[in-house]
Amino acid sequence: MLQELLNTGKIWRASGTDSQQASEYPSGFTQLDERLQTNGWPTGGVIEILHEQHGIGELNLLMPLIAKLSQDEHYCAWIAPPYRIQALALLQHHISLPQQLIIEPETHKDLLWSLEECIRSQAVKLILAWANTLRGEQVRRLQLLASEHQVCCFLFLAQGSENTPCALRLHLSPTDHETLQIAILRQKSGMAGASSFPVAHRQVSHFTYCHEPHAADTNE
Amino acid sequence: MKWLYVYFPQLYLDAYYHDTPSGQALALKKEHSHRILDCNQTAKDQGVSPGMLLNTAFCLCPLLKIDIWQPHQAYQAITRLARETAQLSSWIALDGEDGLYIEIASMREYFGSYAAIRNKLQRLFSDRYHYQIAAAPTPKCARLLSRSGNARGLSQARMLENLRKLPLHSLPHDERTQNRLDKLGLATLGDLMQLPTHDIAYRINPQLAQELAQVTGSEHWEPHPIEFPEDFTWSTDLEQEFDSLLPLRFPITHGLKKFCAFMQARCCTSQNLTLSLLANGKRCGAIQLSLAVPDSRLESWVYRLNASIEQIQLERPITGFHLKATDFIPLPRRSAELFKNTGKDEDSKSLLINRLAARLGIEHFHFINLSDDIRPERQTIYCSQSPEHAPEPDPFSLRPLWLLRSALPIDIAHYTLIRGPVRLSAGWIDNGKINRDYYIAKSAHQALHWIYLTPERRWMWHGIFA
Question: Quick check: is A86 in a domain?
Answer without folding.
Answer: yes
